[in-house]
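Extended Data, panel c. Modelled sequence:
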Amino acid sequence: MEVKKQFKSLQLLKLLGFYAKLDLMWLLRDTKIAVFAILSESIAALASISSIFLLAMRFKGIGNMSHYEVLFMLGYVTSVFGVFNTFCSMNNVGHISRRIGRGQFEHMFIQPLSMPIQLISEGFIPFTGSSTLVVGISITCIALSKLAVCVTWWWVLSFIGSLLVSIVIILSLSYLFSSTAFYAPVACEEISMLLIDNLSSLTKYPLTGMPKFIVYPLITVLPYGLLGWFPSMTLLGKQPLALPNIFPALVALTLFIITYFVFKKGFNHYVKTGANRYKDMGHRR
């Protein structure tokens, strides 16, 4: 069992290195276009948060959050989607409804690799997909330099853990809603893209000062607040709503379990009925 685990870990590392090499080859093949794409993504990441930060500066904060605390939250959110772009944006790993809706799920059946290994490795683009992550980390560091936060090794681990929990929430929601593509591939092909775009837009707003009847749904039923506001407040030492620090992890675990069973049920339906259409768009040959 131990040898098998070591083999899978080594196999995963080799695959990540392989996809990193492919990404680097694409970068070197047309460096000009790649640089423009990276710069465009960086500018878009900055533009998407600038208006909220400028409002916070104009009104000297939002609720009981100072404008630098708002900046920290925006840096955290940008880092979350930067990690998502780096590990999940290639080959529609994060936007799995596209694979299902286009009939491309069968490509994974003939590979001599388990499906989890394929999904973990195929979306990795560290050279061309990490610009948003670099912007997010930079903004976070700038905000921390202006805040009285003691950055220790434990705090850094907490930050990384919060990022991972946020990624689990995003992927769980994406795969949960993408399960509908097993039953209606044409109608639901782009559902994960719409969901993630929606998450990216709405997670940037602080929930501080909002009524509780608005805040609680936004950290449970529609967990936008768990991707930015709640973990940021926790990392800054401000306990939101007197909830425990592990609350986002509990929600992430709950979502993961629900998604597992719903996606598995949809997958079993897909295995029996198959796909009634095929589009090769977005498939790396």
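The radius of gyration is 20 Å. This feature is highlighted in the accompanying rendering.
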